[in-house]
Specification:
The complex is a heterodimer.
Chain A (H helix, E strand, L loop, with lengths): L2 H6 L2 H7 L7 H10 L9 E3 L5 H4 L2 H22 L7 H10 L5 H26 L8 H23 L4 H12 L18 E2 L2 E2 L7 H6 L6 H32 L8
Antiparallel strand pairs in A: 2-3
Helix pairs in contact in A: 5-7, 7-8, 8-9, 8-11
Chain B lengths: L8 H27 L4 H22 L8 H10 L2 H17 L1 H4 L2 H19 L2 H7 L5 H29 L12 E3 H26 L24 H6 L5 H22 L15 H24 L27 H10 L8 H4 L1 H20 L3 H7 L1 H27 L6 E2 L4 E2 L1
Antiparallel strand pairs in B: 2-3
Helix pairs in contact in B: 1-2, 1-6, 4-12, 8-12, 11-17, 15-17, 16-17
Classes of the chains: A mainly alpha, B mainly alpha.
């Protein structure tokens, strides 16, 4: 008996995988059904559906990058404190002092790549008409995931707390004060007056909600940090689960009928 | 910039490597033409191109490369402006859609790719161009440009082939691989390989390119230009033509809403699960125009061609913060009252002052859709029903907002159609 067979026949191996190695047809089916990660897939797929020139693999790569961002992000959280006192210096020491400071590069380039791959995934899904019935709803879930990806990237952009960060967020968040009715410089906001008291001013409008202050400052840093590390990833993870489950339920990767 | 000092050594090595890759690519393509398609003429052409790239590669790697031709540099800088750039992009897009069969032929597409590579290398010899392109946060955009270009070619190529098959009464190519394969091993191994390749690319990228870190944040020192993250620069470019409430809130909201609504508007059941153009000509053209021209092309414009004070700079121009661009834009109300009737607009109530502009907007949003339903898009209206059709027309109108305002700005120097600063209501 070879070592490989010895391991595969051990009690530990069997307790984890519950069936022999996927070498014959039966076990290749069973492996997809008994593994929580693999069961996101169907058991079998159309041959034309998994050709690289058809799918471009962009959705899968986007999900992979999401995992990369999660792992590197958790590690970065060990080294980073979202306060005006520490934020910039923590990034500096990540660059200059910390072993494996390359984590930050992995996280940043992974994020940029994820923005591109999710666009390209949407592009492919559109061009193959894969949003058509019965996949209309899942396309909508995907659009929300796209928005979440952009928001994740946008909130993360502030965290290094350098000139690039603060001014990019200032430019971006300035839009919020022009929200119709809800921003203090938005059309219609001046009409929301009760008894001579303005409801919408720079201390109560949509931009204030986003920044936690009248300008990008410490409150904003904390807000963006919590959104970036907790709220948005959780929302994305939830929708990713729905997205994947619906791919299977809606008939797998699309193909010519 | 002064070119007498030549191109820096490290840049020469980079360009030399780029041309070396291009040389190898062309040798491979010539081999493909000789062996697979048995087209001897094409084989000869691409071997010749490989030789040309080889000479370039040797010259630059030996530190004796030349800077980009000054006349080319100056001509491009001179001719480029927001108008020329955007109009050229639209024309190129239209040409690609109409002559898609020609442009997706492998050797034609290859020729364009080779031209792009050659030009990229030449452009990198210009210090101004190089400085902007190689900013670490701008590198992804180069990636975006090449990947969108390649994948658009790939999708269109497949669409053209499928359209020809469908015209002959054959099923699309995707239909041929109907038989099922097991996910283990056929798909999970593909995924594993994709993950490994991505990991390698990401690690190399992370080692080669440091993440940017500028001076610590200071609310006193405002950088010029102040730019949003690169993926929002298409939206920031819209600020040239619309106020923040339109460019930053209403139009982005419509993009998201429009995308979600898209499957419910598109009543065409053909083209589900395979690449095709002819069966979905309207949908594909509209989407491609939105994604490529109004999104990607504007991101490139906002990143590479907008400098201090959001002024336009040619790709080889120095970003001079003192560049003076006269702004003499005029509101529609000025045109109407001042030039039309010779009346002063001061002292008029805003409702009367802006009545012409409000009328224009009313006609555009309310009167136009039924007219379209009765005339040019009559068949759409009949097949889609009232709600779907109105949704479609509204979304297209909001999408068309931007090009319409661009043209009005370029032709008539029009600033605002409606200008009611009292209520921050400017269109």
């Amino acid at each position: 008996m070879s070592i490989g067979d010895y391991i595969r026949n051990s009690q530990i191996w069997k307790s984890i995988f519950r069936h022999p190695a996927p070498r014959d047809r039966r076990n290749r089916v069973v492996v997809m059904l008994t593994n929580v990660f693999l069961h996101l897939h169907p058991v079998s797929v159309r041959k034309s559906g998994i050709e690289l020139s058809f799918t471009w693999c962009m959705g899968g790569i986007t999900f992979f990058l999401f995992l990369v961002e999660t792992v590197t992000g958790v590690l970065l959280m060990f080294y980073y404190r979202p306060t005006l006192e520490h934020a910039y210096n923590d990034i500096l020491s990540l660059r200059d002092v910390t072993t494996l400071g390359i984590l930050r590069e992995l996280h940043r380039w992974g994020a940029h790549a994820m923005v591109i791959t999710i666009w390209l995934h949407m592009y492919r899904v559109f061009l193959t008409g894969s949003y058509k019935p019965p996949r209309e709803f899942n396309w909508g879930v995907g659009v929300i995931l796209l928005v979440l990806t952009l928001l994740l990237s946008f909130t993360g952009y502030l965290l290094p707390w350098d000139q690039l960060a603060i001014w990019a967020i200032t430019v971006g968040s300035n839009m919020a004060r022009a929200t119709p009715f809800l921003g203090n410089e938005g059309p219609g906001a001046k009409a929301l007056v009760i008894g001579g008291v303005e409801l919408i001013h720079s201390g109560s409008d949509a931009r204030f909600l986003l920044l936690g202050a009248r300008f990008v400052g410490e409150a904003t840093l904390l807000r963006f940090y919590v959104l970036h590390c907790v709220a948005l990833p959780l929302a994305a993870a939830l929708l990713i689960a729905v997205h994947f489950w619906r791919i299977r339920k809606d008939g797998g990767i699309s193909g010519a009928l | 910039m002064d070119h007498s000092h030549g191109v820096p050594g490290a840049v020469q090595v980079g360009i030399g490597l780029l041309y070396l890759v291009a040389t190898l690519m062309n040798i491979g393509f010539a081999l493909y033409q000789n062996q697979v398609t048995k087209d001897k003429l094409q084989g000869m052409i691409w071997n010749f191109v490989a030789a040309v790239f080889g000479i370039h590669a040797v010259a630059y790697l030996a530190q004796s490369g030349w800077p980009i031709f000054p006349w080319l540099e100056q001509f491009i800088n001179w001719i480029m402006g927001p108008t020329v750039y955007f109009v050229l992009a639209c024309l190129a897009f239209g040409k690609f859609i109409i002559f898609r069969k020609h442009f997706t032929t492998p050797h034609v597409a290859w020729a364009w790719l080779m031209f792009a590579l050659w030009f990229s290398g030449q452009a990198m010899t210009n210090p101004n161009f190089k400085e902007i392109i190689t900013k670490p946060d701008n590198v992804p955009i180069v990636l975006l440009v090449f990947s969108v270009g390649f994948l658009t070619w790939l999708a269109m190529r497949k669409a053209v082939i499928n359209d020809e098959r469908i015209a002959r009464g054959e099923p699309p190519m995707e239909k041929l691989g109907e038989d099922k394969v097991l996910v283990w091993p056929d798909l999970v191994y593909t995924e594993l390989i994709a993950m490994i390749i991505c990991t390698v690319i990401l690690i190399v990228w992370a080692i080669v390119l440091k993440a940017p870190l500028e001076q610590p944040a200071s609310s006193a020192k405002i950088p010029n230009p102040s730019k949003a993250p690169w993926y929002f620069l298409g939206l920031q470019e819209m600020l040239v033509y619309y106020d923040p409430w339109m460019a930053g809130v209403v139009l982005p909201t419509f993009i998201v809403k429009g995308l979600i609504a898209l499957p419910y508007i598109d009543f065409n059941l053909k083209g589900n699960g395979y690449y095709t153009f002819k069966e979905r000509a309207f949908a594909v053209t509209t989407f491609l125009f939105g994604f490529i021209v109004l999104w990607c092309v504007l991101i490139v414009l906002g990143t590479f061609l907008r400098g201090p004070n959001w002024n336009f700079f040619g790709p080889f121009e120095l970003w001079d913060p003192h560049k003076n661009v006269p702004l003499n834009n005029i509101n529609l109300s000025d045109y109407f009252w001042l030039m039309g009737f010779g009346e002063a607009i001061e002292g008029k109530h805003w409702l009367i002052r802006e009545a012409p502009g409000l009328m224009v907007v009313f006609v555009y949003l309310v009167v136009l859709p039924p007219i379209i339903a009765k005339t040019v898009m009559r068949t759409f209206f009949i097949r889609m029903g009232f709600v779907r059709f109105m949704l479609l027309v509204t979304l297209i109108q909001f999408m068309a907002c931007l090009p319409i305002k661009m043209v009005l700005r370029w032709v008539f120097n029009l600033k605002y159609i409606v200008f009611i600063p009292e209520y921050f209501f400017n269109i």
